[in-house]
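Handout, page 2. Input:
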Amino acid sequence: MTKLIEFLHQNDVIYAVAMRVSGKHRDVFGKCETISEELSAELKKYNIDAKHVIGTFALDEPAGDRYSNDACTSGDLYKVEHDWVRVNGRILDITAKQFRDDVWIEIPDIIYVDHSHPLYLKYNEMCEV
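Output:
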């Protein structure tokens, strides 16, 4: 029996999985690592090459102390440690909404952007998990 998912464009599958995982987590504050791990694992079930990434997210307001568990060791109040997923060279992030009060650019519930989007510049990748 053929599954409907076999006929969907890969971006539609990525977005649908991201919506499903995001819907399971009302409060994402401080949970970017575990949620990104879950999202990456779910995408891999559909043979999507998803990489869990660790790096920093740049804020526009000095609020790094608000994320004290995630604050970078440099003490920079404009950058916080953050995890997300990289798919096809794009950033897929369902936990960045926790930064909405500290960023001037609108942050949607699901970020799926490439280098041409202004939000892309907020991310600085340090390593893959």
